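TASK: fixed-backbone design
INPUT:
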């Protein structure tokens, strides 16, 4: 049975070579986690760039785990006060923003848009000035499988929905129609590459970083240790055997009443009250699954 995960390569392309810092910041709205987890409890998270771990550490004992040694070292350094760096994702986003500039996405116009605070006004501005025909053609090209396969290994691509450019535009509009731009640092980071700091520096509870595969680490933990799990999109591109292994490991390490949060670029199959993607101000996700660990079973997790 294949229980490997594509994230083990530490590279988007899956080629040989040293692991890279893939994410200089996280594109995940930690307000979802803060609302879901009971303060004072111990939580498990994927380390990534450290943003979610740092935010949760103000109210939780946090164990942040990453299979990518370079990414983990970066998250740990940020927790110690090191400045943010540009990861592989940020370099790719910068190229995309440069390509969109001729489509009406000049920086001054985007800054004006991001200073708006009324969703109805934002939606009108979006449709009139930004969601142009040239922009739609450009995003269809940028997010085509033909273009993306030059950058991403196949298992990661397989997790994406068809017509991904169109899907991303719908998610952008969903966010702008719901959340004020002026206070949305995630939108600013995505559209301008600004706002690299994760969260204000605050006094923390325990924050520990561990280099390990998530499933392997949870399997080694005492039963019932964690009251919350935030797993990023770790299952995007993962084989079914790894999905089953991770689910079993989460159930093993879950305290009574524990909550698990899993994100995915995939589109949901239908309406699901556990899917909080529309509430996540970071825009990108099709699924932000928030549910009690006791409700996890085969066929439920996206």
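OUTPUT:
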């Amino acid at each position: 049975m294949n229980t490997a995960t594509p994230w083990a390569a530490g590279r988007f392309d899956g080629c040989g070579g040293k692991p890279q810092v893939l994410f200089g910041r996280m594109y995940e709205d930690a307000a979802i986690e803060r609302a879901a987890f009971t303060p004072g409890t111990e939580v498990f998270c994927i380390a990534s760039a450290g943003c979610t771990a740092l935010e949760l550490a103000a109210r939780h004992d946090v164990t942040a785990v990453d299979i990518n040694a370079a990414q983990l070292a970066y998250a740990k350094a940020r927790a110690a006060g090191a400045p943010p760096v540009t990861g592989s994702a940020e370099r790719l986003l910068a190229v995309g923003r440069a390509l969109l500039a001729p489509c009406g996405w000049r920086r001054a116009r985007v800054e004006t848009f991001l200073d708006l605070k009324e969703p109805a006004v934002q939606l009108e501005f979006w449709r009139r000035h930004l969601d142009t025909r040239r922009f739609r053609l450009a995003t269809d090209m940028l997010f085509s499988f033909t273009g993306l396969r030059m950058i991403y290994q196949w298992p990661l691509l397989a997790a994406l929905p068809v017509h991904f450019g169109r899907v991303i535009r719908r998610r952008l509009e969903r966010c702008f129609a719901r959340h004020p731009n002026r206070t949305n640092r995630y939108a600013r980071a995505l559209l301008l590459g600004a706002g690299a700091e994760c969260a204000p520096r605050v006094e923390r509870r325990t924050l520990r970083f561990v280099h390990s595969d998530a499933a392997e680490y949870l399997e080694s933990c005492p039963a019932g240790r964690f009251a919350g799990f935030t797993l990023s999109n770790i299952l995007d591109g993962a084989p079914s055997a790894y999905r089953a292994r991770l689910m079993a490991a989460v159930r093993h390490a879950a305290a009574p009443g524990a909550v698990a949060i899993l994100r995915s670029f995939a589109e949901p199959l239908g309406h699901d009250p556990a899917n909080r993607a529309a509430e996540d101000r970071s825009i990108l996700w099709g699924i932000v699954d928030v549910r009690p660990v006791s409700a996890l079973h085969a066929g439920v997790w996206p």
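COMMENT: DSSP finds 13 helices and six strands in the chain.
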